[in-house]
Amino acid sequence: MTRGALNCISYQIVTGDGSCPIVQSALVRRRASPRPGGPIAVGADPARDSGGMTRGRDPAYPHSTAVDRTLGRVVVRSHARQSSLRFLEVDGHMYGAVDLHDPQRLELDYLARYATLLDAVLPAGPADLLHLGGGAFALPRALGVRRPELRQVVVERSAAVLRLAQSQLGLRSTKALRVIEGDARDVVERTATGSVDAVAGDAFVGRRTPRRLSTVEFVTHVARVLRRRGVYVVNLIDGPPWRVLAAHAATVRTALPHVVAVGSPAVARLCESGNVLLAASRQPLQRSTLAWRLDTGPDASALVGGGRLAALAARSHPTRDR
Ligand SMILES: C[S@@+](CC[C@H](N)C(=O)[O-])C[C@H]1O[C@@H](n2cnc3c(N)ncnc32)[C@H](O)[C@@H]1O
C-alpha cells in the first residue's frame, strides 16, 4: 500500500494507575504531512491524529458545507498545500480524509490500521464486505484498490455527508462499491443470513457509536449475516478506565464469542486513549497471525492482551435495546 511519509517522534507517557508504567518512553510514527487546523479527530484517534490538527495551525480551506439535522455542520476542507488531500469535518470533529489522486493513501492512522486488519481477516479472493458509516469513504476505496476482487457495500445515514462525498470527495458508486443511503441497523436487519465475510463498523454521531449499533440485539443480527468464518470489526474511541471497550466486548461476545482488540502499542497496553478496533468471530481468531500481519502493516499496531480484554468484558454488562 502506498503511504504518506512517516516520521518518528519519541515522548514519555506518565501514568500512575499501577497497570501502566509510571514513566515510559514511546516511539510513535506520525505522518509527516501537515494537517489542517480546526477539527478535533473523532473517527480518528484523538490522541495521535489530532496532534497535527490543533486549532490555528496550518489552516485548511473550507470547500463546501452542508447541515445534517442529527450530525450538525458538515464541512469538506482542502489541505492548504496539497489540494488533492481533502478532509471531512462534522460538527467540529474530523470524520475522514481522502486523497483524490491516491485512494490508497489513508491519512488517518486508525484507518490504515483498519485496512490492515480487514485485509488480514478477510478470506483470500472474492469476498463480501459491509461497511457501516461512510464518512469520507476512505477505507472502502483504499481496500478496493488493494483488493479489486472485493464486493463492498457501504451504508451512510446522512444525505448531507453522502452529497459532499460525491461532489467534493470523488465518491462514485460502482458494482464493486455499492453505496446505500440509510441507517446501518435497518440495512443489517434486511441483509440476508450468511451473506457477508466481514462487517466493518465505523458509524459515529459526535464521538460515539450510536446506541442502536451497540446492543446485543444488533450484534445478533450482525452474527446472523456473517458467513461461518465471518468477522465483525468495530472502531471505538476510548481510554482509561475503558468503559466503552468493556461494554462493547461484553456485548459483542454474546453473539460472537472470539474477540480480539487492536490499537496503537500504547492503546493496546491500555495506557493511552485512542482508537480501538474490536474484532469478533464465531471461530477463534489466530492471534499470532494477526499480530504478524499488524506488525508488517503501515502503522505501529498491537493486540490488547487476551486476558486483559476478557477481564474488561467480565466487569461490564452487555448493552441491550431499551
Ligand atoms: C467516522 S465516519 C466514517 C469514516 C469512514 N470509515 C471512512 O473510511 O471515511 C462516521 C460516519 O458514520 C455515519 N453514521 C452515523 N450513524 C449512522 C447510522 N446509524 N447508519 C449509517 N451511518 C451512520 C456518519 O454520518 C458518518 O458519516
Walkthrough of the structure:
This protein has about 325 residues and is α/β, with parallel strands linked by helices. It has helices at about 45-50, 110-120, 140-145, 160-170, 185-190, 215-225, 245-250, 265-270, 285-295, 305-315; strands spanning about 5-15, 25-30, 40, 60-70, 70-80, 85-90, 95-100, 125-130, 150-155, 175-180, 195-200, 225-240, 260-265, 275-280, 300-305. The strands form three sheets. The chain has an eight-stranded mixed β-sheet with strand order 10-9-8-11-12-14-13-15, with helices on both faces. Helix 3 links the parallel strand 8 (about 125-130) and strand 9. Helix 2 packs across helix 9 (about 285-295). The termini are far apart. Residues about 1-20, about 20-40 and about 45-60 have low confidence and may be disordered. The structure holds S-adenosylmethionine (SAM).
In DSSP terms (H or I, runs of 4 or more residues), the helix count works out at: 10
User: Strand sequence of the main sheet, in spatial order?
Assistant: 10-9-8-11-12-14-13-15
**Could you describe the largest sheet, including whether it forms a barrel?**
8 strands, mixed
| Amino- and carboxy-terminal Cα gap | 43 Å
Rg over alpha carbons: 18 Å
What percentage of residues falls in helices of 4 or more residues? 25-40%
Q: State the assembly state of the protein chains.
A: single chain
Give the topology, please.
Layout: E1 6-14, E2 23-31, E3 40-41, H1 46-49, E4 61-68, E5 72-78, E6 85-90, E7 93-99, H2 109-121, E8 127-132, H3 138-146, E9 150-156, H4 159-168, E10 177-181, H5 184-190, E11 196-201, H6 216-225, E12 226-238, H7 243-252, E13 258-263, H8 265-268, E14 274-281, H9 287-295, E15 302-303, H10 306-314
Parallel strand pairs: 3-7, 8-9, 8-11, 9-10, 11-12
Antiparallel strand pairs: 1-2, 4-5, 5-6, 6-7, 12-14, 13-14, 13-15
Bound molecules: S-adenosylmethionine (SAM).
Residues 43, 71, 95-96, 111, 132-139, 155-158, 161, 183-184, 202-205, 210, 213 line the site of S-adenosylmethionine.
